[in-house]
Amino acid sequence: MVELPTAAVDRIIRRSGGQRVSEKAAEKLAELLEEKGLEIAKEAVKLTDHAGRKTVRDTDIILANKR
């Protein structure tokens, strides 16, 4: 189940140059963004654990995204 609001995803697509966006297109992009976000977050948590911290920092997210 996708938790990202489709209205926000619709705005992202429109900011990228899309003039019209179907509901299914916004839903599909939300699904893909959530999957990628979960992958990055899981990697960031591993980095946080390895550093002996409980707080995930922005630097953890940046490093996780590069991996």
From TrEMBL:
GO cellular component annotations of the record: chromosome; cytoplasm
Transcription factor CBF/NF-Y/archaeal histone domain: residues covered: 3-64
Pfam family, one: CBFD_NFYB_HMF
Keyword Kinase in record: no
Principal localisation: cytoplasm
UniProt keyword list: Chromosome, Cytoplasm, DNA-binding
Molecular-function GO terms, alphabetical: DNA binding; protein heterodimerization activity
Subcellular location: Chromosome; Cytoplasm
Keyword Ligase: no
Superkingdom of the source species: Archaea
Family classification: Belongs to the archaeal histone HMF family.
PANTHER family in the record: ARCHAEAL HISTONE A (PTHR47828)
NCBIfam families linked: archaea_histone (NF043032)
Protein name per its UniProtKB record: Histone
The organism of origin for this protein: candidate division MSBL1 archaeon SCGC-AAA382C18
